[in-house]
Sequence to fold (358 residues):
Amino acid sequence: MDDVHCEIFIHRRKCSDGCQCLVTDAHHLADFDHPEYCPDGGRCTNMGKDHLNLYRHVPICKNGIDCDRRYTQGAQHLAQFRHCQHPCEFGGNCVHFHDQKHITNEQHPFNPPCPYTPFSCKMFAKFLQPNNGQNNNSTNQNEMNEIRTHCCRYSHICPWGRLCNDQSEEHLSITIHIARQMCPNGNNSCNQMMEEDHLDSFSHLNVRDMRLLCYYPGSECRDRAKVEHIIKYRHNYMLDYLGVAQYFALNKQINFVQNQIEMTQMICNYVKKTYKQAWTSVSVPKNLLDWIAALQPIHRCVAPIFESILVHGHVMSRSYIQRLKDPTFVAGIVDQHKRVRTILASQVPHKELREGEA
Fold:
């Protein structure tokens, strides 16, 4: 009887796309069975997987939650489009995690990003290495609970990046995975494993993209010459002490104290002449004093030196400038220039990971 029933009547099959089907063709709708539309229509903002798999929905407005037409055109526009976050095309690999407008308008699988990620969040550093093998002072339990709360509430950059093997839902919700380019030299033949800039620019197998933070600043670490230490730990250069610098005494003929006395006297004379009152009776607003105290010192230089600073992006000593006559030294400086490295990085062919190498 079932065979006879099937021969007499036409039965619609379930559409393979289910709730994600966007086809509006009449023949398609007659031949295939689809889930019902969400009863909230264009007012639905539920982006949960269970809800999206249960109902079909009208398309998301291209302007997302910033659309003004939902106010000006009212029910007509709301009936045709939803106004909620667009799913980000990069998902958990999004590099725009510090773009607040992007994070607000588009949906991501991770929690709101920590404003101090990737390198400035001290809590995440302690979360990764509460006892990093170098520090004998263990973190107390109350502080550790506060750290865990922070790291569960906000997302941070995953240290392993594209090499991460943790696909658990909890891990993906608290971390952002930035897919950096693999080292063009290959892991076994790379001779730049001692260079911090290189390790911070390319991914290497079995090496974290964001290495653990060494307990000692770079100037005090005794293991800075060991490759096994460098590939595991990064160093805080902000704590480095200033080394020996060459002194040329170019300003030894200038009396800075006398300059200050003369400038102060000029100001006093100006006040007496212009405002007809003694300098001791002048009241200087506190906000003006605070503004002057916050000013950064400015050093004068000739035009060619200033142009050199702009081109290289930093100030150089005289001995450093003399070394620019060496072609090998210049080639190394050019290779480390930020803009040059950006151009070269775009030309590096992408290498896929083989199964099990991560």
